[in-house]
Design goal:
The protein is 75% helix and 0% strand. It has 15 helices and no strands.
């Protein structure tokens, strides 16, 4: 990422001691998740011959990771050492992926069950990272800029992870892609777990959050949930389109193009603050995401699909 592409408000953050390292290792620790998301679907489709089974396993992967993250993040809030939680969950999740790759089953329930177990133990890296920024950046404006920067550059994770998984599936096999995701998970989380200052994230004596305090956030939770559902369905559709063209492993490259568009869109969005407030911008962007992804159904080939994904992705990160 060049100096010219990075908005001026972001540059001082990376010059702050340990912030650049924390951001870099937190991104590395997340690469295994999108790599695993593509790899488990490719493995399921290969073994069952069914994209419906692939869609089911994809849903289990996303739902399991979401539910698991809530539990593991809460453990950190209650004072459990973040390093121990991160390394423990990463080890179990990676072991689940290894079992998935090595057990030669074509049963959809078995594949979904093993996938769900691996997903449930996904390390809560994003939650811990976002709790780390107030520790490293005490100023409110700096924290706000950091959250925006993180949301944008994490698209690098969704470029790298699927690309690596797709390449591994094409060169070796989907099982090799799953094993690669396991290795990336262990290596990345280990690098993040030794970040200076991480021990200060544990909640300890903080008072518990009451449900009534979260009610104003319900519309945002609902929007985020529905957006994630739509993007997950689009992922399975992209894999199906690549498979129909006889190049299933090309889905990794298509995902990379999709995320590259989101990265560029996020950088542009970060450089142009909303003039009429964030609520209006969010509404416009959600409508734009819906329309642009609906248009994907009219693709005429993988090249045109890639071009359409580039445009559609540009609206996601903002």
């Amino acid at each position: 990422m060049t100096r010219g592409l990075l908005p001026a408000s972001y540059r001082p953050l990376l010059r702050t001691p340990t912030v650049g390292r924390a951001l870099g290792t937190s991104l590395l620790a997340r690469v295994g998740w999108p790599a695993g998301g593509l790899a488990v679907v490719l493995l399921t489709v290969e073994r069952t011959g069914s994209y419906a089974s692939g869609g089911l396993v994809s849903a289990v992967w996303v739902l399991g990771a979401g539910l698991g993250s809530l539990f593991w993040s809460r453990l950190v809030d209650r004072g459990r050492p973040p390093r121990r939680v991160l390394l423990g969950t990463a080890t179990v999740s990676a072991a689940g992926l290894v079992v998935l790759a090595l057990v030669p089953t074509s049963s959809t329930p078995v594949l979904a069950g093993i996938t769900g177990s691996a997903a449930l133990f996904g390390s809560p890296v994003p939650a811990v990272a976002r709790a780390l920024w107030p520790v490293l950046l005490p100023e409110g404006d700096a924290r706000t800029a950091m959250y925006s920067l993180e949301a944008t550059v994490q698209e690098l994770v969704f470029i790298t992870g699927p690309s690596l998984a797709g390449a591994a599936a094409a060169v070796a096999s989907p099982a090799a892609a799953v094993l690669l995701a396991a290795g990336l998970t262990i290596a990345g989380v280990t690098a993040f777990a030794v970040t200076p200052g991480l021990h200060r994230v544990a909640g300890g004596d903080r008072p518990p959050v009451e449900l009534r305090q979260l009610r104003p956030l319900v519309p945002l939770y609902a929007a985020g949930f529905l957006l994630l559902c739509g993007l997950s369905w689009a992922e399975v559709g992209v894999i199906g389109a690549a498979g129909a063209a006889g190049a299933t492993a090309a889905a990794g490259a298509l995902f990379a193009v999709w995320s590259a568009g989101s990265l560029v869109g996020g950088l542009i969005g970060g450089a142009w603050p909303p003039r009429r407030g964030p609520a209006r911008r969010l509404l416009v962007l959600l409508v734009g995401v819906a329309v642009s992804h609906l248009a994907l159904a009219a693709y005429g080939g993988l090249l045109s699909l890639g071009a359409m994904l580039l445009v559609a992705g540009a609206l996601v990160a903002p």
